[in-house]
Amino acid sequence: MRYRLTFVIGLAVGYVLGTRAGRERYEQLKKTARDISQNPAVRNTAESAAQQGRHYAGVAYHTVTEKVGDRVPETVAARVRSLRERSAHNGGAEDDWGTSNT
């Protein structure tokens, strides 16, 4: 019961604060978020982080398969193969998020 009461109070406080901020503040926050996400420096950083993540995931996969060997479940190995094939068919130009791999 205590958790429900806390949830309801939090919901009420959020509603009151949200209505006080109004539509203008919402639009301002939305515009700021859009401007940040479309900033070339932010996009390049996000793309390079994604590329590094893919690289280190591949390194980790190879390290684990060397140590674990045949004990890697076939479903995991099949998923990795399908992701590599899909990446090869796309020419590595675009990932699932629509960003380039440059």
Taking pLDDT < 50 over at least 5 consecutive residues as the criterion, the unreliable ranges are: none
Please report which band the strand proportion falls in: under 5%, 5-15%, 15-25%, 25-35%, 35-45% or over 45%. under 5%
**Overall shape:** flat
Helix content: over 70%
Q: Largest sheet at a glance?
A: none
Write down the secondary-structure element order: HHH
Structural class: mainly alpha
Oligomer class: single chain
Distance between the termini: 53 Å
Instruction: Output mean pLDDT.
Output: 78
The total count of helices amounts to 3
- In total, the number of strands is 0
Radius of gyration of CA atoms, rounded to a whole number: 22 Å
Structural account:
It is built from three helices and no strands. The chain starts with a helix and ends in a 13-residue tail after the last helix.
